[in-house]
UniProtKB/TrEMBL annotation:
Matching Pfam families: HicB_lk_antitox
HicB-like antitoxin of toxin-antitoxin system domain location: 23-98
Native species: Saccharibacillus brassicae
Coiled-coil blocks: none
Superkingdom field: Bacteria
Listed SUPFAM superfamilies: TTHA1013/TTHA0281-like
Protein name stated in the entry: HicB-like antitoxin of toxin-antitoxin system domain-containing protein
Length: 104
């Protein structure tokens, strides 16, 4: 069962592990702890930037909708879920900046 932050408890910084899967078309990104938080980049660098942007928007929506926010899993747990060839990166977002930019 997922571990969640106490309802209404917002953090200033969130860090989650993302899985990157490189193909001929580019790099897909998914966050195992955050189903539905996915993105894509044509290069590794673009995928990293898109991952941060996707996480910013996803976390902002969770906060503003009052949805439960899962605590991040350990890297070991994420790697057990990874398919062969996938790489893990830690993505960090600074929520005060995101909240200000999004207008709340």
């Amino acid at each position: 069962m997922p571990d969640f932050l106490e309802k209404g408890n917002k953090k200033d910084v969130y860090r989650y592990w993302a899985l990157l899967d490189s193909t001929e078309e580019g790099v897909s990104v998914s966050f195992p702890d955050l189903p539905g938080c996915v993105t894509f980049g044509e290069t590794d660098e673009e995928a990293h930037a898109e991952a941060r942007e996707a996480l910013e928007g996803f976390m902002y929506e969770l906060e503003t909708d009052g949805d439960p926010i899962p605590n991040p899993s350990l890297l070991e747990t994420i790697l057990k879920q990874a398919d062969p060839g996938e790489a893990a990166i830690e993505v960090q977002v600074d929520m005060p900046v995101v909240r200000e930019a999004m207008g709340s």
